[in-house]
Specification:
Residues 1-33 are annotated as: Disordered. It contains 36 helices and 5 strands. The chain is mainly α. The longest helix has 48 residues, at 26-73.
Length: 716
């Protein structure tokens, strides 16, 4: 583009020296000016229309998921306790802090209750704002209190509508990213349609509303859109500064709303590192992105009262290591191919060593063990030795942390998304390899330049970033199903960009010797339109059927349990049980818990393992002693855990406890040689027989088809 402008200036100068030529060109120049004005008006009109379409699609998606949520639960008609029970597991825990802030006498009192909380973990006072990412609940509760909407909107609706509103932001961000990459808003329209038609694999917001990822992923999508814009060439300084500010704000909000932010941004930092090593991104912009990640995470660290898990994150260590290594190796991008490869290998090793040393040093200084369960899980998952660690096995046995099921790809292929994605990914990867080789070799041979001319046009910095981003997050999704939502949403962006990209169609047509500018233009628009028509024809009736299908929330046993707790136990009572159920107990009844699902704390993990001995083969005296050490007044036993059949042998909770305790598992099957039979029967089964050795410590006070509640005796 720069060369073309320079040539035009040159021709204009020569024409100025020749008066007759200037006179001859007056009419064409006027026509050119007219064409230029018309082109600008057309671009402005296209941006306006594209923007309206983006906002409309975002709002429609928000209404769509809100309607699905209402239709699935009949949320507007069920009781408050049923609404709260619908926030399962950790969702209920997070929402309980919003409810707590709403019900507090004042905002100051509500904040004090969070900073000095003694109801989430019995016999301990913890700082909720430090331990958990709940600033969004705090902000939303304050907003609800100060806005004049209390008479018109219930607190729960204000909460869920905010989350559904963020889905609009999410879809608009995906739309804009695809638009920026391809240059046409038709690409954004296709990305948004794919996101909706593949809803099962792109989001789970309608049934896990308060989950941290539903708060965080819209901001992550905004950040990716802003990075894509930043990596465009010929940005004005003002545009660049504003974009960097947008990236910082999005990064900060993403980090503030999700405890796993550091791991996602580490993958992002790896993508930047790889591209920088192969000269595919401007080094100055990459440096700014590293600094933004560090500053955003440190700001969150301050707001979370210097949370040690953030300070000991691999992301901070890695980014610092890259910046240090770059100052040491100043000639990293000079020399021939062999020299560059040697320098690159040394650079990677240097960054790796610095990262491990810095991270080890920080964790040693801070005595940090909050995230050790994650590394134990990863070590066992990727085959670096079997483990009997209870926490690691708890993750390994959950389907959400297993490999991505193969039926995911068949669902994604039904909408043509996966097929097109694989095609675009293959083509772009080949181009990236060629460009990387050329950049490393530093060759200026004319023949080589001619061969890769199309490649350099196709693989612009913004496209290169999105390519590596989708590859790395694809690897994460393949290895851990729960993380697929980070990949599948970006898959919609990447596939739609490839289908609407002038450069990609130009490259394909040149390879098969059919290239003309007009043919490229026709294909660029006709193929996406045909794809949109196919998606509409095939999936619109299904969406309409889905919206017309009405269900109702039904969980009478849990409702009965919560109502009994509220009516028959003191407000200061302490409850023990499964961490998933206890999150609901806290939300629905406000009672004190022994443990909960927010697992990023070593003391809590050890406490949970001890509480779960109620499902192990332990004596009544042992279980009573353990429960009383945590101040327990009541213990809730669930038949669905005690007699679990959902998992196979070896992955049932009772099996994990038996293995951790060195006991032989129940049922037919092999056991490891060193496992021994337990001296005691399984507690959750034996207690129901009302034997004297049990009744002296435990008295059954509530029972239904699912739950059994026992009150602990208070021996002196």
């Amino acid at each position: 583009m720069t060369t073309v402008r320079q040539r035009r200036v040159g021709k204009g100068t020569e024409a100025a020296e020749d008066q007759p030529s200037e006179e001859k060109n007056v009419k064409p120049d006027g026509k050119t000016l007219s064409d230029h004005t018309g082109g600008k008006l057309w671009n402005v009109l296209s941006v306006i229309v594209g923007g309206i379409v983006a906002i409309s699609l975002g709002l429609l998606t928000s209404v769509y998921v809100a309607t699905l949520h209402e239709n699935d639960l009949w949320f507007s008609n069920i009781k408050e306790v049923e609404r709260e029970i619908s926030f399962r597991t950790e969702c209920g825990l997070y929402y309980s802090y919003y409810k707590q802030m709403i019900q507090a006498a004042s905002i100051q009192q509500g904040l004090h209750g969070l900073v000095y909380d003694n109801k989430t973990e019995s016999v301990r006072t913890i700082n909720i704002l430090e331990r958990m990412n709940v600033y969004q609940e705090v902000f939303l509760s304050i907003l609800y209190r100060i806005l004049p909407i209390q008479q018109y909107l219930e607190p729960v609706y204000f909460y869920i509508y905010t989350l559904f509103g963020l889905q609009a932001v999410y879809v608009i961000a995906l739309y804009v990213t695809s638009w920026l990459l391809s240059g046409t808003w038709l690409s954004g329209l296709l990305a948004a349609c794919w996101y909706v038609t593949n809803r099962i694999d792109t989001t789970r917001v309608e049934f896990t509303i308060p989950l941290r990822e539903n708060w965080a992923l819209p901001f992550f999508a905004v950040q990716i859109a802003a990075i894509t814009y930043l990596l465009r060439t010929h940005l004005q300084p003002v545009q660049e500064r504003l974009t960097l500010m947008a990236i910082f704000i999005a990064t900060f909000l993403f980090s503030l709303t999700w405890q796993f932010n550091q791991f996602m941004m580490l993958i992002q930092a790896l993508a930047l590192f790889i591209l920088d090593c192969f000269d595919m991104l401007p080094t100055a912009k990459v440096t700014w992105l590293y600094i933004i990640q560090i500053s955003g995470l440190l700001l969150v660290c301050v707001l979370q009262f210097f949370n040690s898990m953030i300070l000991g994150s691999l992301l901070l260590s890695f980014n610092a290591s890259v910046l240090i290594a770059r100052t040491i190796q100043k000639n990293l991008k000079k020399g021939g191919l062999l020299n560059r490869l040697v320098q690159l290998i040394l650079h990677v090793l240097l960054v790796l060593c610095f990262t491990l040393l810095i991270n080890k040093f920080i964790k040693k200084i801070l005595n940090l063990e909050s995230d050790e369960h994650i590394f134990k899980f990863l070590k066992a998952k990727f085959g670096f030795g079997a483990t009997r660690d209870f926490d690691a096995n708890l993750y390994l046995c959950e389907e959400a942390f297993g490999l991505l099921p193969l039926n995911t790809f068949s669902r994604l292929s039904d909408t043509l998304l996966f097929c097109i994605y694989v095609f675009v990914l293959f083509l772009m990867t080949v181009v990236a390899v060629i460009v990387a080789f050329r950049n490393l070799s530093g060759s200026n041979q004319v023949q080589l330049m001619e061969k890769v001319e199309e490649c350099t046009i196709t693989l612009k910095p913004d496209a290169a970033y999105n390519l590596i981003h989708t590859v790395l997050f694809g690897c994460l999704a393949l290895s851990t199903m729960r993380m697929k939502y980070l990949w599948t949403s970006h898959m919609c962006v990447f596939a739609s960009f490839g289908l609407c990209s002038t450069e990609i169609w130009k490259l394909i047509l040149k390879c098969i010797h059919l290239y003309t500018s007009r043919r490229t233009h026709v294909i660029k628009y006709s193929i996406p339109i045909i794809t949109l028509l196919y998606i509409s024809y095939k999936f619109w009736p299904g969406i309409m059927d889905e919206l017309s299908e009405l269900r109702e929330f039904y969980d009478p046993d849990t409702v009965e349990l919560m109502n009994w707790i509220k009516s028959n136990t003191p407000n200061t009572a302490v409850f023990a049980g499964s961490m998933q159920l206890l999150a609901g107990v806290k939300l629905c009844t406000g009672r004190t818990l022994t443990n909960h699902p927010h697992y990023e704390d070593k003391n809590l993990r050890e406490r949970t393992k001890q509480i779960y001995q109620i499902y192990a083969k332990r004596s009544a005296e042992d279980v009573y002693r353990i429960l009383r050490s945590f101040g327990t007044d009541y213990v809730i036993l669930e038949d669905s855990i005690c007699y679990e059949r959902r998992h196979s042998r070896g992955c049932r909770l009772r099996d994990l406890l038996d293995i951790a305790n060195g006991h032989i598992m129940d049922g037919l099957g092999e056991n490891e040689p060193d496992l021994k039979p337990s001296l005691y029967p399984r507690f959750c089964e034996e207690i129901k027989k009302n034997l004297p050795s049990y009744t002296v410590h435990f008295t059954r006070v509530f029972q239904n088809k699912t739950f059994h509640v026992y009150k602990l005796a208070k021996h002196k």
